[in-house]
Amino acid sequence: MFCSLLMLLGAMAQKTVISGVVVNSATGRAIEGANVTAEGLSVVTNGDGYFVLKSDAKIETIAVSHVGYRLKRVSVDGLSAENQKIRLEPMAIQLREVLVVADNPRELVNAAIRKIPQNYSPVPELYRCFYRETAMKRQHYICVAEGVVDMYKTSYQKGNGRDGVAISKGRRLLSPKRSDTLSVKVLGGPVAPVQLDVVKNTDFLLNSEELDHYELKMEVPTSIGDRSQYVISLTPRVKLPYALHFGKLYIDRETLAFTRVELTLDMSDRQKATDVMLIKKPLGVRFKPKEMSLLVDYRQGADGLSRISYIRTTLRFNCDWKRKLFSTSFATFCELAVISSTNRDVQPIRGRETFDQRDAFFDKVDYFRDPDFWQDYNIIEPTESLDKAVQRLLKKY
């Protein structure tokens, strides 16, 4: 199975602009969430496999990677109209590589936890990120909000108490139909990378007490970029007063750094799932949880340290009103992609500028109006379906 990347090169002022689409060459399907990096910058492909990367400097080389494939580096100058296709080769991993730890995945996870101080930044850092949240009612979008945010993180040797997020630039769009108004507030928002950074906030999952609640199992190994990964699945093995998760942990075979975390909330007890997902709802509305999933990616830098690079939450639920016969399905999606980071002259985000869990991103940004809103910012390009939905909503104002 191979992937292809269609590269379209252009220039805007003195900017270098590279755009393209990543697809599976065997099936023709777009590959969502592929990482495209160059010169200290990073973007992620959207649901259509499309990306745009902008840089102040000339880009010599790009790197494209996805779970299960070998990292591919390509010289931008070497691309031509006749040679625009780049293939990502799947990485073959021998099962014998995991035999040493196959009988004790818990010890492997414990070893990776012990190495967190070595594998992640020992100093404060500031990240420039793109954030987007959307809400859907049945099959149509009712809310879109997106922006550029700054995220401050202290050393990974400390907790996340001083970590914070501030909005640099943002915009919003809400369906004008009153029947589309969704006053239910669920888990998510720009603070998710602070709360759900599983490696830094070890109280969430990666601690002895929480791990005791799960059965851990070695799965078939894979690769991320050019690095081999152990894969360990988690399955709840006890009943607790709160909901647990099903999931997978990806651990770098060489450094033992956590590189990817995939979690899905156990929905077997509706009330426990509701307690996790729901923050606030109006009286008379019945909330029925359907799905909550979390994806966190970490990427190794040139200095050998791993840093959070992408986080996505998906929530699906139904709401009904006591006097209505049928319930209505809703879905919310939040994603944050780290575009760049620095540890030079980094200062904490001031209290009054820090985004709080109680805040709504939608209430702190302006409406969609300016066609040149993003200018030279690197963002996750909207999918074709989202772009069409935005255009339809704009016409209603």
Question: How is this fold's topology laid out?
Answer:
Blueprint: E1 3-12, E2 15-24, E3 35-38, E4 41-44, E5 50-55, E6 61-65, E7 72-75, H1 105-114, H2 116-119, E8 125-137, E9 140-153, E10 164-174, E11 185-186, H3 192-195, H4 208-211, E12 214-218, E13 222-224, E14 227-236, E15 245-252, E16 258-265, H5 270-277, E17 278-280, E18 285-300, E19 306-321, E20 328-342, E21 366-367, H6 384-395
Parallel strand pairs: 10-21
Antiparallel strand pairs: 1-2, 2-5, 3-4, 3-6, 6-7, 8-9, 8-20, 9-10, 11-17, 12-14, 13-14, 14-15, 15-16, 16-18, 18-19, 19-20
The poorly predicted ranges are: 1-13, 95-101
The number of distinct β-strands equals 21
- Secondary-structure class: mainly beta
Number of helices: 6
Describe the sheet with the most strands.
Answer: 12 strands, mixed
At a glance:
Helix content is 11%, strand content 43%.
Please tell me about this protein's structure:
This protein is mainly beta and about 400 residues long. The protein has six helices and 21 strands. The strands form four sheets. Strands 8, 9, 10, 12, 13, 14, 15, 16, 18, 19, 20 and 21 form a twelve-stranded mixed beta sheet that branches. Residues about 1-15 and about 95-100 have low confidence and may be disordered.
